[in-house]
Structures are given as C-alpha cells and as structure tokens.
C-alpha cells in the first residue's frame, strides 16, 4: 500500500480536494471531492478518478463546527485508505509574499507569517489558512505543506514587476507578484505534452474562473501576468473590479466618505460582473439573462480580456498561442468566441464548430495563432510539489 497526499484547494468560490498516491511514481489521483460550504445545506461530495460518486454527506442540521467539513473528510479517508498511510496534506495558499516562493512544510512560525499576508489577499488568504488550522487541531502530527499561487511568477523582473511609485516601496515588497500560478504551471506542463511545438513559443494562458488572470509564458515560465500585489488587479472578475484608475479609490474615500473597509468590500466583493450587471457574479447566469446590464457586464469582461492579451503580447513581442482554462475558459464558447473576435487583428482565428464542441484545439485552419482549451488542475500541481518536497526535500 503506497503513501497518499490529501490536497486541499481553497478558491474564492469553492473548496476542492484530491487524494493522490504519491509513491513510488508520479502522483496518481485516487479520488476527488468538493466541500460545498456556500450552499444552504453544507455538503461533501467525493468521486473516483473516473467521476463515479463514492460518497456524499449533507449537514442538514446547519453549519458544522469550526473544523468545517474536514473532520468528515478525514473520517472518510481513513476508511477509504484502509490502513494506507496519509503522508501529508498539501494546501493551495494564495499569497506567499516575499518570503515564500517554493513549497514549504508549515511548521514553527510559518502559519503566523502566512496569516500576516492576509491584507494582500483579503478574500483568499484566510479561506486557504482555515483548513490548515483545522488539520492542526484534528491531526496535529500530520505534515502540512503550503504551495503558493505566487511561486510560479517568482522570476518576474522589471519592468513587468515594477509599479511606478518611489523605489522605497518596491524595496518593502510592493510589486507585482501574480497569482493562479498553480494553474498556469499545470497548463504549461500539459501544453508541453499536448503541443510541444508551441510550448516554447509566445503563449498567453487565460485562466478565466471566478478569479481571472492572464499569464504570458516564455519557454514554459511566467514572464508577465495581469494580477499584481493583490488578486484585485487585471481582468474583470466575478466580484472584483480588476485594473481601475487608482484615483477612483481616493475619490471614494474623500468625496463619498467611504472607509478603507467599505472600499475593500466594494472592490473585492461588490464589483466585477456582479457590480456591473447588478444580477450575478456567475457567468452562466449572465449569459442566460436578457437584462441589458448583464449583457454589458459580459461585454466589459471580454473587452478587458482581449485588451490584456494585447498587453501580454507586448511583453512577448508577439503571439503564437492562446490557451483558455478555468470554469469560464473551459466551458463558455460564447466568451471564447467574443474574446477571439476582438483579437483577430493579432492573428487569432477560431473554428466555430470546434469552439462550440469545446475541442482541445479550436484554432481555425491557417490561423497564425494556435488556440487551445486545456482544463486546469491545480490539485495535480500541489500533489507534484508535495511529492518532490517529501521525496527530495525541495
Ligand atoms: N458552462 C459554463 N458556462 C459559462 N460559465 C461557466 C460554465 N461553467 C462554469 N462557469 C463559470 O466559471 C466560473 C467559476 O470558475 P471556477 O474556475 O470553477 O472557479 P474558481 O475560481 O472558484 O476555481 C463561474 O463564473 C461560472 O459561472
Ligand atoms: C487568486 C484568485 O483569484 O483565486 P480564485 O480564482 O480562486 O479566486
Ligand atoms: Mg480557482
């Protein structure tokens, strides 16, 4: 019986988990699940690698205790592993700050250092750290490993990483970090496997989910990305504004008399698709709606994705490939079509039928830019990092 790693991926709109065998070879998915704490009736669903449901539990009596649904997950895993060893729990942690840019075992002061980064990712950091604290209280001996969304972008260099404010702030860590790195890393490795001819070219990956960002890849590494110091920058998102004139923030505080907390809430949780449409943060609901404000929100979303692809192409000095991933990127043909239509001047042309089917390659025949859909899997990136940290120590 081989060792397993439990991977917990806490995002802004979901908590996913995966159980992987990590010995002796590449991590192999045994089962995956979803902790749905946002529904009225919190529930856990677990299915095997082929998608067959293995387990479901609903907490009809209301919100479970502080350790959320994790104690149920551990009880289920213990049964499922039937004596097999759980070697570690790997976590997606959104911000690693200046100190963390590779996977680390969470020990000593690590948790406190990660908590101190909460202001840099107010919507995410505590959501990612809550499961760490829960596992510490449920299974204090279990090794826990933090894998960072920022790490893949660690090599970003000026001018990309620099904000045009006095240097002393950059020296204090105020610069572009970038996020969704575990997703971009996985997509880059899949691209190398699926389309090796393109993997070394000038490729932009569009991770379009509830949070959304772009990454410019050169030789499989990140050379630019749309998010910045925080996951608020760049594209229009479910509830986040993305890039905005910083003067708006000052105006809201000075003239609208909004507090810092009010502005934070507005920009992180009340803006983006939700704020513009007044209808929903969920792209499915907006695409199904006839409300003109919903159509405008979708239009702003696609306009800004296309505009930022052009920014990434500037960094790459051209564009050879465009890859869609994330909930919207993988499942919304209308959004892909509208983005690609806006980018036709850059040589992006897609085949309508391939796009409608969600084929892997959706570029039109003869399109100068290759266009692909590659479903992301942040859990696999985390499992790989955990395995290499456990086996080789880094
Ligand atoms: N079939 C679909 N058509 C359009 N949008 C979709 C579809 N399926 C999922 N989405 C959108 O994907 C987004 C969630 O993306 P996802 O990557 O799963 O989220 P997270 O950022 O929490 O990981 C939501 O806006 C949802 O509406
Ligand atoms: C960093 C980020 O935006 O993550 P998510 O897509 O989970 O919101
Ligand atoms: Mg996500």
TrEMBL record:
<keyword id="KW-0460">Magnesium</keyword>
<feature type="binding site">
    <location>
        <position position="16"/>
    </location>
    <ligand>
        <name>ATP</name>
    </ligand>
</feature>
<keyword id="KW-0808">Transferase</keyword>
<feature type="binding site">
    <location>
        <position position="92"/>
    </location>
    <ligand>
        <name>substrate</name>
    </ligand>
</feature>
<keyword id="KW-0418">Kinase</keyword>
<feature type="binding site">
    <location>
        <begin position="282"/>
        <end position="284"/>
    </location>
    <ligand>
        <name>ATP</name>
    </ligand>
</feature>
<feature type="site" description="Transition state stabilizer">
    <location>
        <position position="180"/>
    </location>
</feature>
<dbReference type="Pfam" id="PF00871">
    <property type="entry name" value="Acetate_kinase"/>
</dbReference>
<keyword id="KW-0963">Cytoplasm</keyword>
<dbReference type="InterPro" id="IPR000890">
    <property type="entry name" value="Aliphatic_acid_kin_short-chain"/>
</dbReference>
<comment type="pathway">
    <text>Metabolic intermediate biosynthesis; acetyl-CoA biosynthesis; acetyl-CoA from acetate: step 1/2.</text>
</comment>
<feature type="binding site">
    <location>
        <begin position="327"/>
        <end position="331"/>
    </location>
    <ligand>
        <name>ATP</name>
    </ligand>
</feature>
<feature type="binding site">
    <location>
        <position position="9"/>
    </location>
    <ligand>
        <name>Mg(2+)</name>
    </ligand>
</feature>
<protein>
    <recommendedName>
        <fullName>Acetate kinase</fullName>
        <ecNumber>2.7.2.1</ecNumber>
    </recommendedName>
</protein>
<keyword id="KW-0067">ATP-binding</keyword>
<dbReference type="InterPro" id="IPR043129">
    <property type="entry name" value="ATPase_NBD"/>
</dbReference>
<comment type="function">
    <text>Catalyzes the formation of acetyl phosphate from acetate and ATP. Can also catalyze the reverse reaction.</text>
</comment>
<dbReference type="GO" id="GO:0008776">
    <property type="term" value="F:acetate kinase activity"/>
</dbReference>
<dbReference type="InterPro" id="IPR004372">
    <property type="entry name" value="Ac/propionate_kinase"/>
</dbReference>
<keyword id="KW-0547">Nucleotide-binding</keyword>
<comment type="similarity">
    <text>Belongs to the acetokinase family.</text>
</comment>
<comment type="subunit">
    <text>Homodimer.</text>
</comment>
<feature type="site" description="Transition state stabilizer">
    <location>
        <position position="240"/>
    </location>
</feature>
<feature type="binding site">
    <location>
        <begin position="207"/>
        <end position="211"/>
    </location>
    <ligand>
        <name>ATP</name>
    </ligand>
</feature>
<feature type="active site" description="Proton donor/acceptor">
    <location>
        <position position="149"/>
    </location>
</feature>
<dbReference type="InterPro" id="IPR023865">
    <property type="entry name" value="Aliphatic_acid_kinase_CS"/>
</dbReference>
<keyword id="KW-0479">Metal-binding</keyword>
<feature type="binding site">
    <location>
        <position position="378"/>
    </location>
    <ligand>
        <name>Mg(2+)</name>
    </ligand>
</feature>
